[in-house]
Every structure is written in C-alpha cells, then in structure tokens.
Amino acid sequence: MRLVIIGGGILGTAHALAAIGRGHEVVHLEREVEARGATVRNFGLVWVSGRAANELELTLRSRRLWEEIGGKVPGVGFRPAGSITLVRTEAELAVAEAAAAGPTAAERGFELLDPDRVRALNPALRGKFLAGLHCSTDAAVESRQALPALRAYLEASGRYSFYAGAEARTVTGGTVIDDRGRRFDADHVLVCPGAAHSGLVRELVGDIPVRRVRLQMMQTAPLGEPLTTAIADGDSFRYYPGFAGEPLNRLNREESQAFTAARHKMQLLCVQRLHGGLTIGDTHEYDEPFAFDVDEAPYDHLTSVAEEFLGRKLPPVVRRWAGVYSQSIDPTAIVTRARAADNVWVITGPGGRGMTLGPALGEETADLLHL
C-alpha cells in the first residue's frame, strides 16, 4: 500500500518506520524544514520506570524496538544506560522501597541501592542522598539527531520520500494537497500533528480529548566526566503513575514541595548527551495561553538539586528552551486515534511519552489498519 503521513516528529516517523518495515510505500510531509516540536525538545529518554502498569507491556515492547533500531541505525544514539531516582527524605525513600518491592519491579529492572552502591554504579554522583532507585531498563536516544538518522535509513529502502517545508492543507479521501498545490494520493492517510490541534486537525475530526502541556529545559556544556545513568529526583514520583499508592499519598500529605517546585510542577530529570553536556528539566504547565518567555526560578531550582546530587558545580548552561507536547486526557487511552474517514486517521496525544512509546505506537497503528 501507499501511505501519506503528515507530521515529521517522532510519532509520524515511527509510523513511517512501521509501514516501511512491512513492505509499504510512504510519502512523508513536514511543514517545517526539520521537526522543531516536542520531538527535539525532550530528554531523549526511553522511560520504563514510571509507566503505569496497564502500559508497561507496550513500554517494554517499545524499549526492545528502540534497541533493535539502535542496532540498525547507529545514528539514533541508543544506549541502555538505565536510570537512578535519588531520594533525599524518609517519605521519598518509602515510595522507592514500595516500588522496588512491587509486583512489576522485576519487569522494570528496579533495585534499591544504598549511597555506596549508587556511587559505584554512577561515580559522578558524589553529593547528598539517602538512596537511589535503579531502573536497569531505562534507556536514551539522541533526540536532536534521531529523526535525520531514521529518515536516511528509511530512504535507503527506496520506498520512502520526505517532503520538508510541505504543509498539508486539505485531505479528501485518500488525496492530500499541500500548500504548493501538490497532490499526494494514498491508500491511508495518517495525520500526526504533535501539539497542533487546530487547523487541519480540527477540520478533519473536530475537538478531540487532548490538551497541550508546556515545559522548560536547559543544556549545559560538557560535564567533563561520564554520567553513566540518567538521574531523577523524588519529585518525579509525583508525575509518574507507576509510583501510585499509599507511600506516595503519604509523601504528598506529609511533604510540601519547595515553593518553586510546587508552583511550576517540577521534577528533576537529567541525562548526558553524547557530546558530554547534560540535558536538565523539567516543568509542567497546563493552563493556556502559555507564556512566550521562560522563567528563571525553575532553572535555579533544577541547578541546585542537580548540584546537590553531583556534589559539584554544574558546567555553564549553554542553552535554554521551552516546548509544548500533546497529551491525551482520556484516562483509557495512551494515545488519541481519531478516525476522520475510512482511510484517514489523526494520531496524537502520547504526552511526555512520545519518544519512549513511538516505535510501539507505530506498530500498534499498523496492526489496527492491517498493514
């Protein structure tokens, strides 16, 4: 079959990867010269540790797919580094202990480590913490270089064409017309718009159960030593459903987050890029209209927490940015798939899970469409 995929982010690219892998032809349209949304404004984390139990199987499937992709496409920068969530209080420790003893701990690769074992695994962590929840299944890719590497791999099939700077204006049946008047005919049209929920998406499927979430992040100069795992702090327990339970309820009752962390709904996540710098974040903002500028207070807070764990000053921050991603608000759905016609689908809303779940969601859609 021939597919036209609209949207060049990770979700659109993952759907192209699934289709090409099954022998089909793909025409891929991206309105920017290069994807500039949440796909490249994230940590590149393939995050198993905090996923809800009902999505764990899909997450582990996606993790295995990423490893396979990394073997075929070295340019994506896949590395099975794992993560350590560092805890600073007894209440946070109780959440980590419950997770390490939980029914899915073995599948996730959870192990609770004392400070000495944390430092043996990740010697760059010379600061203060009570313990670390190690997750051996977490991994990372290079978000800013993954898409070009994947497209080059797809183009080598001879069945993939990428049109940069091509904005789809109309979709009628199996025909897509872009802003240059070019027509692209297909057996299936998949619209993967990221956080662009208006315009063409609204024309096709109206209002769908998704919202937009804004975040702030930053990048440092090279650390000068390996950070062998990704790291998170205890605030991250509050944002991942995999940690739900009475210990987390007690944490939320007994401990108020620092004012800045609570106000900006923050967690520390930190991963080292291949060039040695650290990507650090993030915040959560749900109420639109979003600000067009970034606040400095969250960066100060994240810097202080990261330096507390590292036991040293961070390298200079070389860039800061904000991003917006699409999140499904349907509690029964990991991603929103809205059918506009028999052969036209809009697919969006994986939340902060797009990079983690992209390959598995692409395969899931391919199965749904009997590709």
From TrEMBL:
<protein>
    <submittedName>
        <fullName>FAD dependent oxidoreductase TIGR03364</fullName>
    </submittedName>
</protein>
<dbReference type="InterPro" id="IPR036188">
    <property type="entry name" value="FAD/NAD-bd_sf"/>
</dbReference>
<feature type="domain" description="FAD dependent oxidoreductase">
    <location>
        <begin position="3"/>
        <end position="368"/>
    </location>
</feature>
<dbReference type="InterPro" id="IPR006076">
    <property type="entry name" value="FAD-dep_OxRdtase"/>
</dbReference>
<dbReference type="InterPro" id="IPR017741">
    <property type="entry name" value="FAD-dependent_OxRdtase_HpnW"/>
</dbReference>
<dbReference type="Pfam" id="PF01266">
    <property type="entry name" value="DAO"/>
</dbReference>
<dbReference type="GO" id="GO:0005737">
    <property type="term" value="C:cytoplasm"/>
</dbReference>
